[in-house]
Amino acid sequence: MNFRILAAPVRPHGRIVALMAATALSAALLVPAAQAQQPAAPAPAAPKAAPKAAPKAAPKAAPAAPAPAAQAPAAGAPPAAAAGQQPPQDQQIQLIYAPWTKFCLKGQEANAKQVCFTGKDGRIESGQPVIAAVIIEPEGEPKKILRVTLPLGMQLVHGTRIIVDGNPPQQAPYVICFQNGCMSDYEATPELIANMKKGQNLVVQAINSNGAPLTLPLPLNTEFAKAYDGPPTDPKVFEENSKKLQEELQKRAEEQRKKLEGAGGATPAPANPAAK
């Protein structure tokens, strides 16, 4: 398994360190080369929806986001729905989840600080990652970060939105895009972490390239609290579990392909969750 560390500015007076790990937090977080500040474009990794109307209303207060979904689309965004035209439906995708996992890493440099990560991802049956969330805790830093990663092809102007059960939603802009996804950062305040510990779902929302709202839940239950408060997982054990999960997903995708071929159907493109 490969680990890469991305240092990115979060505030004018500080920098955070973000891990991108393979498999359980992988492809959505692990990236071979940067493509920062790319405009949203339809890409195989981005979920799509058929309607071409503007997105439904998002929260009234949108911190830092250039244009909240509740307002008229900015330049380059889809036009508003015509009279009598149905607005785009909120798209939900059936996902397979890795468990919440905590691990800590320390760089090879002298005086390197330890960074701990507690994260989870969701994938479609082909193994393609669609959503990932990770809490990043650099040693000695007063602020913690909740980083969510979505596929390329989202409308960047709208940013992302997170909701934990019935708590007030939060909205944040995308901070950077890489080949395997775009990231949005939230401050992981004690209140947010407490809500996640006792909550049922962390819901991530975004607007895809067709202007349709996309809702992606990450189950919390008691699993998040156990992982967050517990000891870190041994990296070797983490790698083994990640490999098993990937093999299982590949097996399911192959079985589905054979089933469709046997029924005389066309083989679906495994990397496009928009087919749902």
Automatic annotation (TrEMBL):
Biased composition annotated in UniProt, kind: Basic and acidic residues: 236-261
Sequence ranges of Low complexity compositional bias: 46-88, 266-276
Signal peptide from the UniProt entry: 1-36
Gene3D superfamilies: Invasion associated locus B (IalB) protein
Protein name: Invasion associated locus B family protein
Keyword Signal on entry: yes
UniProt entry keywords in alphabetical sequence: Signal
Segments of this protein annotated with the region Disordered: 42-88, 229-276
Top-rank taxon, per record: Bacteria
